[in-house]
């Protein structure tokens, strides 16, 4: 077995706490492992299994999970085989460029190469919308390209969430809290129209005050919960995003939260999605991250367990 990690350029990553690089360093301890960049990823019908990759070396900080160094070595070409595993680890936005990468990976999958997560499954499971198939676990949502149904939606959520003052509006295809806005309920029509003019489509939800106490990130692999953190927004902020300054600490899921994540994980595992990072506000799942689930450095550090090592164990168990 070899592990090949398809990643964004190193200059785009926060190397010291990058989930993929931690996983790559851990994988290299036991099997040959390589980095693959999007710019080098091509498919040749005469030899589609050839990849131009980079060996690498690096270190994590002593007694920690943060990365101290990560360096590429001279590139080489390898021939893939059915024992190899490719990790799809490119960050969104989920646009046509992203779909083009998934199409290439689908071709490799057709040759018997394992891809985590399955590229076809990534393509059809939107991170913000898939959870709506589980109404008992999901936040009431309006997906709209106009304000035609906005009034009816807001009247319904006001009945369900007494004292509701704000809505959250977010793009359907971005990540790390980019583009997310908090808007007054009584100014929602104009704000939503402006949002749609910029992003074409709006995901509209009630603003849940529980976010002020934090949002849970729960990491699952192979249907199993590996660890959780509570991400707390900065004072005066409403986005519990670590990349935007949220603090974090270890936490356990309550029974309802775990039941929800267990059920969704079992369903997605059957479709080829092993690695999931859930975001939960209160007892609701707000997002099901399947494109490039992250924060395993932070979850590892907070829970004093090496999630990279646990993920690699699960890959062996699942026979990937």
What can be said about this structure in brief?
The chain has 320 residues and is an alpha+beta fold.
Structural account:
The protein has 320 residues and is α+β, with helices and mostly antiparallel strands. The protein folds into three domains: 3-123, Rossmann fold (3-Layer(aba) Sandwich), CATH 3.40.50; 140-207, 2-Layer Sandwich (Dna Ligase, domain 1); 211-318, ATP-grasp fold, B domain (D-amino Acid Aminotransferase, Chain A, domain 1). It contains eight helices and 17 strands. The protein has helices at residues 19-28, 96-110, 119-124, 150-160, 188-199, 255-269, 296-303, 307-318; strands spanning 3-7, 33-37, 50-53, 56-60, 67-72, 76-79, 85-89, 114-116, 142-144, 166-170, 181-184, 202-206, 215-221, 224-232, 247-250, 275-281, 284-289. It has a five-stranded antiparallel sheet. Strand 13 (215-221) and strand 14 (224-232) form a beta hairpin. Helix 1 (19-28) crosses helix 8. The termini are close together. The mean pLDDT is 94.
């Amino acid at each position: 077995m070899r592990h090949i990690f398809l990643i964004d350029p190193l200059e785009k990553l926060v190397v010291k706490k990058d989930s993929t690089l931690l996983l790559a360093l851990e994988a290299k301890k036991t099997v040959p492992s390589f980095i693959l960049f999007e710019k080098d990823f091509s498919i040749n019908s005469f030899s589609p299994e050839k990849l131009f990759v980079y060996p690498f070396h690096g270190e994590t900080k002593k007694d920690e999970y943060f990365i101290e160094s990560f360096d590429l070595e001279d590139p080489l070409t390898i021939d893939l085989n059915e024992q190899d595993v490719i990790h799809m680890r490119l960050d969104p936005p989920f646009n046509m460029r992203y779909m083009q990468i998934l199409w290439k990976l689908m071709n490799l999958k057709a040759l018997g190469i394992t891809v985590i997560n399955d590229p076809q499954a990534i393509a059809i499971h939107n991170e913000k919308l898939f959870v709506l198939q589980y109404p008992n676990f999901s936040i009431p949502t309006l997906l709209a390209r106009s304000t035609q149904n906005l009034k009816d939606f807001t009247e319904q959520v006001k009945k369900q969430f007494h004292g509701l003052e704000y809505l959250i509006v977010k793009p359907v295809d971005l990540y790390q809290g980019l583009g997310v806005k908090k808007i007054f309920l009584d100014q929602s029509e104009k704000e939503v129209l402006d949002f749609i003019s910029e992003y074409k489509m709006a995901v509209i939800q009630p603003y849940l005050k529980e976010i002020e106490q934090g949002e849970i990130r729960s990491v699952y692999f192979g249907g199993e919960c590996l660890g959780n953190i509570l991400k707390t927004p900065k004072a005066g902020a409403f986005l519990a995003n670590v990349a935007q300054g949220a603090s974090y600490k270890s936490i356990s899921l309550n029974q309802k939260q775990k039941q929800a994540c267990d059920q969704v994980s079992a369903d997605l595992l059957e479709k080829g999605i092993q690695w999931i990072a859930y975001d939960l506000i209160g007892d609701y799942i707000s997002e099901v991250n399947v494109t490039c689930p992250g924060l395993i450095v932070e979850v590892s550090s907070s829970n004093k367990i090496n999630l990279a090592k646990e993920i690699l164990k699960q890959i062996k168990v699942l026979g990937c």
